[in-house]
Amino acid sequence: MVGVSTETAPVRVMIVDDDPLVRAGLAMMLGGAADLRVVAEVADGAEVAAAVRAHSPDVVLMDIRMPRMDGLAATEALRATPHPPEVLVLTTFDADEHVLRALRAGAGGFLLKDTPPAEIVHAVRRVAAGEATLSPAVTRRLIAHVTGPGPTAPGQGRRERALRLLDGLSTREREVALALGQGRSNAEIAAELFMSVATVKAYVSRLLTKLDLNNRVQVALLVHDAGLV
Fold first, then answer.
1. Residue 43 domain boundaries
2. 59-63 sheet: strands from edge to edge
3. Model confidence at 7, in pLDDT bands (50, 70, 90)?
4. Phi, psi at residue 129, to the nearest 5°?
């Protein structure tokens, strides 16, 4: 009897960065993972839309600072299209005031450029699987920074809107939303709320539909806007 292959297609990744050395390093790093495939490299945000149409990536690694169109504008334009790929923003701490804009646009998360290679590979896999994420711990720290006191703190109108949306949730939905705002993974939420991981995933999907959001990062930001974490 002929066996049935259980192999799945590799995750298709596109790298967007104006530094050729960064692109080469990322391509080499990701190319070493059997389940990832770099399908395109782009040097500017202005080239992203055409490259996505040509290569159909599952995940785009997006730099912020580029000469013609920066990664923020490119992310906003890309996520506004039908069935866009996931976006992971590449950044450094000195650019963290821009990260919030990227996450609100629908980016699945971000990576620091000095993140260890194994963590970058893991983050790409998680985002490709729909696990837009607030971890590892450095991500939680940066999210707390950009949503904390100061010029990036939510205005009164945004806070009232966030509270209104969260008030429309059931008690259990609200508990899951708060856990997302604290940067919890599905497994951590399951343990904390005595639920199965599958049930947590179902609640996250329900939250995205009910709140009309793209991913769990945006749920977390809504919780931060409401001042609940």
1. 11-146
2. 36-42, 11-16, 59-63, 86-91, 109-112
3. low
4. -85, 5
User: 193 in helix, strand or coil?
Assistant: helix
Instruction: Say if pTM beats, i.e. exceeds, 0.90.
Output: no
pLDDT digits (tens, 9 = 90+) for 58-100: 999 999 888 899 888 999 899 888 889 999 888 775 555 666 7
Helix (H) or strand (E) holding 179: helix 171-181
At 139, the pLDDT band (50, 70, 90 cuts) reads low
Say what angle helices 197-211 and 186-193 make with each other, to 10 degrees: 110
| Same-domain status, 186 and 102 | no
Task: Please classify residue 219 by burial: count the beta carbons closer than 10 Å to its beta carbon, then call 0-12 exposed, 13-18 middle and 19+ buried.
Answer: buried
Residues 76 and 160 in one domain: no
Category of 109 on φ-ψ map: left (φ > 0), alpha (ψ -120 to 50) or beta:
left
Length of the chain: 229
